[in-house]
Amino acid sequence: MMKKRNSKVVRLADYKTKKEHPGSWWPHIILLLAVTFAVYYNSINNGFVGDDIGFVRDNTNIRSLANIPSFFTSPRMLAANDPGWGTLIFRPLRTISYALDYAVFGLRPWGFHLTSLVLHMAACVTVYFVALALFEVPAVALLSSIAFAIHPVHVEAVSWISSRADIIGIIFLNLSLLSYFRYGRTGAHVYLAVSLVLSFLSYLGKETMIPLPGFIILYDYATRNRRPIKDLVMSKLPAWVLFSAVCFGYLVLRFYATGRMDSTMGWWGGTAYSNFLMMAKATATYMWLMVFPFKLTLHYLVRPVHTVFDPWVIVSLLAIVSSFALIIWTYTVNRLVFFSLAWFYLALVPIANIVPISFAMMAERYIYMPSMGPIMALSYGVYALYRKAESRGVLETRAVIVGVAAMALAYSVVSVNRNRIYKDNFDFYAEAIRTAPNSAPSYNGLGDRYFESKDYKNALVNYDKALALDPNYADAYMGEAYSYMHIGDMARAIQYGERAARLRPGSSLIRYQLGNIYRDAGYLERAAMEWDEAVRLNPGDSQAYNNLGAYYQLTGNYAKAIEMFEKSIRYNPFNTETYYNAGVVYEIQGDRAKAREYYARFIKMAGAEYSDKVEELRGKGY
């Protein structure tokens, strides 16, 4: 008599796999760490690129561990110059990691890259244990974690220091899930408490981890077996409410600290309709990159569309509908695979731009966490295929092994090669332009790189290209303005600087820079007005206070000058120039003791660029 098929959750144990000893995962972890290190070893000697300049290199707030409490309450501490970065990107744990790196390595980029690599290795280990807890077969966990470790779409999160938040977030998210799984098995409330704390830390790592309560609910639903929905809800609702409350608490903290929840940038494509069509294209592109990550770029340009009959929109919608059909089908076959595939769409919610909150419509770093679910599902499928091939013969088994090895090798080669583009700003932006030639930010970034190397001619060429692609690009106008200022064309410098200020009147950085242009052009009062506006917009702008102090010194208002210099030092104790300027004012006032104090700090901190001033002070007996 035929037995009725049990509708319980299907696990790999249903394939009658050999039960493995719990300690057997140690060799897997060692292999995983070795593979991850090998793929990302060449990233360690890369430099600071792109946003690393503002978040790390020029962010003097990370140079003192005493500032750590302020990272949770003061957005201006999270980035240099422009507090808008901090209010839009509130990621205090990332900034703490930078401060710890600085305490150990100073401003040596290799130390920051090493930390990112170690964090990625830790994230891969958590992926291993989540997959092991779900599927209960170490081989599936190993496949999942190695695929996650070497996948090329993750290079941006690992090799770009500014993207470290994704790694920190997923570490705490996975640890929270593992604690919740243990709570489900044991019923011990201590694991629930630990899971809740870890969930809050994941949000502080990166805001895109907020689907975590959804993962908890989805997991409970997927593993309920024959349990009625009503019973499931009654028993799990208290935990679900607690996770939701912690998530809500984080959002309240974020709003309290930043005063905003979105970028107020408006709909992509100009309308909500166009925005949603572009979302479909971005989602389909993510799906493609998960399988075929061979045409990667730093700047993805999603062309605005205004009709559902656009060919790429139709293709994208078909891909999305097909994937939903697959997810629904897996629910009837294997609910853990269902959970892993549904993970992808749930994780996309905060980055899908349902309400536009991102600087870019899409980016590879955005799917560092969302990719984990499909990777686990695919690893399960590969292992099931291997077991099926194993029962058929040696040839089929070898074919599966060769196929997996070939894909792993191809992914690893792509990842190793992509690590190199983070070497310096030239390679970084040159690669971005090569792969996305219509990207205004890429040309602007390359212009900044030429500007830093004092090649103002090529800087202007690239700023012009950025403005040709985006005529309202304020940063490119200011790049033009500073370039003209340095080559002595003050009329154009003022023209472009004022245009930048009109486009972004609320930018303290642009106001500060416009003040510098007015100063070099001889319009000191107008310069002081712009610096005043800069510190009004950003009360922690140390350099603007320094410049105001120099202005008041020139006008003979020494008391006001000292007040400005003291504020400059308060907000940036590492502002070498301010110590010298304050010493000069105290010397003018005849307070030699105070002058000696500030000159001593200046001499201690001065680099090679101040060697002449140091020699001059020593000659005067300081």
Write the layout of secondary structure elements.
Blueprint: H1 25-40, H2 52-57, H3 83-88, H4 92-105, H5 109-135, H6 138-150, H7 155-159, H8 164-186, H9 189-205, H10 212-222, H11 229-258, H12 272-291, H13 311-333, H14 335-348, H15 372-392, H16 394-419, H17 425-435, H18 440-452, H19 456-469, H20 474-486, H21 490-503, H22 508-520, H23 524-537, H24 542-554, H25 558-571, H26 576-588, H27 592-605, H28 611-619
* C-alpha Rg (nearest Å): 28 Å
Strand content: under 5%
Number of strands: 0
Helix content: 55-70%
> Count of DSSP helices?
28
* Helix and strand run: HHHHHHHHHHHHHHHHHHHHHHHHHHHH
Structural class: mainly alpha
Terminus-to-terminus distance? 101 Å
Largest sheet: none
The oligomeric state is: single chain
Structural commentary:
The structure is a single chain. By secondary structure, the chain is mostly helical. It is built from 28 helices and no strands. Helix 1 (25-40) packs antiparallel against helix 5. The chain is elongated, with a radius of gyration of 28 Å.
Characteristic terms for this protein:
mainly alpha, disordered N terminus, elongated, 28 helices, 622 residues
Summarize the structure.
This protein is 69% helix and 0% strand. The protein is mostly helical and 622 residues long. The longest helix is centred in the middle third of the chain and has 30 residues, at 229-258.
